[in-house]
Amino acid sequence: MDDTDFDSALIASAMTLAGTDGWRSVTVASAARAADLGLARARVRFPNKGAILLGFGRMADAFALEEAPTEGPVRDRLFDLLMRRFDALQSYRAGVLAIARAVPFDPPTAVLMACATWRSMRWMLDAAGASTTGLFGEIRVKGLMAVWLWAARAWEKDETEDLTVTMAALDTALARAERAAGWLAGRTPAKKAMETPNDAPPDDEAGGGGDGGDDA
């Protein structure tokens, strides 16, 4: 088993355990044992639980980027990329929701996930063809971060098989962010632009509230 397969197996095991027993009960060792993986190798590959979350975020990013769209408006490309990322989370829905419930009571993990998600959103923008360099690039990342968090709250409550509620929330959030800030075009945000989708819910809430990781 190469490192990629080993990492995937351990992360999948950890997410399954989180879904059944809660994230707090998960350890690297327990995930390795449940997947019949060597503890010594697990210790090298995953020095702590945070490494599991970062690895899961990278897996979600890779799934989204694997078939990154190359045509169409940037906003449409972002919609496709972010929905693919939600599809990756959906495969481990119970575990992701368990992590979301635990994070508010674990500030270090919350900071870790916020930084990882910021990097993920930068990747999504780059993949969609939107520059992330300079001041305007940071504005775009901040805007997409807010969009993701808003849509993620919808995903948490979305019980539809095809994630209809999540898609509606994401589309609305992207449209609102684009109108409010012009962040895809790189315009300097006015005061209203700071009212991100996370702060000011769209008029049509698409049936739910609006993370993870690297990145979740």
Q: What proportion of the residues form beta strands (DSSP E)?
A: under 5%
Ends distance: 25 Å
Which spans of ≥5 residues are poorly predicted at pLDDT below 50?
A: 186-214
Arithmetic mean pLDDT: 86
- What's the multimeric state? single chain
Structural class: mainly alpha
Largest sheet: none
Number of contiguous helices: 9
**Judging from the principal axes of the Cα atoms, what is the shape?**
globular
Name the helicity range.
Answer: 55-70%
Order of helices and strands: HHHHHHHHH
Q: Tell me the total number of β-strands.
A: 0
Radius of gyration: 17 Å
Structure description:
This protein is mostly helical and 216 residues long. Helices cover 66% and strands 0% of the residues. It contains nine helices and no strands. The protein has helices at residues 3-21, 28-34, 39-45, 49-66, 74-90, 93-102, 107-128, 134-157, 164-181. Helix 5 crosses helix 7 (107-128) and helix 7 packs across helix 8. The longest helix has 24 residues, at 134-157. It is globular, with a radius of gyration of 17 Å. 43% of the residues are buried.
